[in-house]
Amino acid sequence: MEIKLSLDFDAYEDGATLTPLIEQLAQDAEKSQSLTSLVIGDWGGAYEESPDGFLPALIEASGRFPNLRKLFIGDMSYEECEVSWINQTNLGLLLAAYPQLESFTIKGSTGLELEPLEHARLQELIIICGGLPSTVLQSIHKAKLPELRKLELYLGVENYGFDGDLEQDILPFLYNNPFPKLTSLGLKDSELQDEIAIAAASAPILQQLEELDLSEGTLSDKGAEALLNSEAVRGLKHLNLNYHYMSDAMVLQWRSSGVNVSLDEQQDLDDEWRYPSLTE
Amino acid sequence: MQSHTILFGNPGNKRTTGWQQALKHHKQPAALEVPYIRLLQAIRAGDRLIDLLDSLIWRHYNQHAVHHYPSDLLAQPLALRLDAPGENTAVERGLIALGADDAEGLISDDLLPLPEYTHGSTITAAMARRLEPHHGRVFYPAQWFRGYCRLLSWLRLEVQRDLSHGRWMNDPAEAAIMFDKRRCSRWLDQAGIRVPGVLAAAYEDMPGSYDSLRQLMEQQRVHRVFVKLFCGSGASGVIAYQYHPRTGAEIASTTIGMEQWNGEQIIYNSGRLRRYTDHEVIRRMIDWVGQEGMHVERWISKDMIGDMAYDVRQLVCGEQAGHAVVRLSRTPITNLHLRNKRMLLEQTDLSAAVRESIRMTAVDGLGAFPGSFCAGMDVLVPAGGGDPLIADVNPFGDLLYYVQHEGLGAYEWELARWLERK
Question: With contacts defined as CB-CB under 8 Å, which chain B residues touch A13?
Answer without folding.
Answer: 221
